[in-house]
Structures are given as structure tokens and as C-alpha cells.
Write a structure and sequence with these properties.
four-stranded antiparallel sheet; 179 residues; alpha+beta
């Protein structure tokens, strides 16, 4: 039989078990909350990195009425650092480097360099491509770093033939407009 003297240790043991179980529940809840907070922080860091990340693309465009260039444009939200680009036209590769390309800006250079001559007009470039039995596609690859010093790579192909066709269409429109 249980006596009055046994009631104290039994109550103490039951109280200890209840408190231990309560502490385990609190610890589990705290661990889950810390996991959620850690995931939220990782997501915020990822979003901050994307918010200030450059996105570089190649394009062909008119420099003025008669001249065209190949340009690398940063359409991202952050500047690109230590930018190095290489493009291939008619089997010839050319590369260039610039220290920085701010967001929303572009850097242009000649599509074709024949020896020391820069070929800038669509006619000159079209003639060069014909002489070298080359297509009108320009392949490019770009490497840079973002503001967090993370390396990024971009590559693609643009078609110079689109500008040739647009130039020919403009000439037809000027000489034979619709009435």
C-alpha cells in the first residue's frame, strides 16, 4: 500500500515527466520555426541576388543610317563586371573585354573586321560573307561576374540576315511605295 510518505516522490516523478514532455514539444516547435526561418532567409538572399543580377544578350543593330554593329546588352537589373565576350562570324572569332557593363546599357563593336578594316555597312558585310561562303549567323559567348563576384555565362546566336532583309525592304519601300 501507498503511504503518505510515498505521495511526494510519485508526484515529483509525474511532474518531471509532464514537464519533460512539455519541453520536448516546445523544442520540436522551436526547431520547426528555425527551419522555416532559415528557408525564408535563403529565399530572401536568392531574391536579392536575382534583383541585382545582370542578363547579357547579343544583338545586331543599326549604329546609324548606313552602319551596323554587334552589341552586347545588359537587360538585367545589376551591373556586369569583368565582361569578356567572343563572337564568331564567317569562321573568324573575335573577343573583347570591358571592366563593367551597367544595367540597361550596351557595348557595340564591328560585326566583321577584315584585316585592319572595320566593315560597317550591310553591303560590305554581305559581300564579305558571300566571299567567304559564310552564313549570316553570329555565334557569341559572354562571361562576367555579378556584384557578388559570382561567375555567369551567356551564349546564343543572332542572325545578321534579318538586318539585310530589313535593309532590302526599306530600299523597296523607298523606290516603290504602295499607293
Amino acid at each position: 500500500p501507498l503511504g503518505a510518505s510515498d505521495f511526494g516522490p510519485i508526484a515529483s516523478a509525474v511532474g518531471t515527466i509532464v514537464l519533460t514532455f512539455g519541453l520536448l514539444l516546445l523544442y520540436d516547435k522551436q526547431a520547426r520555426l528555425q527551419g522555416i526561418q532559415a528557408q525564408t532567409q535563403r529565399n530572401q538572399e536568392r531574391l536579392m541576388e536575382q534583383q541585382f543580377q545582370p542578363f547579357l544578350t547579343g544583338e545586331v543593330g543599326f549604329m546609324n543610317v548606313t552602319s551596323v554593329t554587334f552589341a552586347i546588352q545588359n537587360s538585367g537589373n545589376g551591373p556586369a563586371f569583368d565582361v569578356s565576350a567572343e563572337r564568331t562570324v564567317a569562321g573568324q572569332s573575335r573577343s573583347w573585354e570591358i571592366p563593367r557593363l551597367p544595367a540597361g546599357e550596351k557595348h557595340s563593336f564591328p560585326i566583321v573586321v577584315d584585316g585592319d578594316d572595320w566593315l560597317l555597312t550591310t553591303g560590305e558585310i554581305e559581300e564579305f560573307l558571300d566571299d567567304h561562303n559564310a552564313g549570316t549567323e553570329i555565334q557569341y559567348s559572354i562571361e562576367c561576374k555579378d556584384r557578388f563576384d559570382e561567375p555567369l555565362e551567356f551564349s546564343g546566336t543572332v542572325d545578321f540576315g534579318v538586318l539585310i532583309q530589313r535593309s532590302n525592304a526599306d530600299e523597296i519601300w523607298e523606290t516603290d511605295p504602295l499607293e
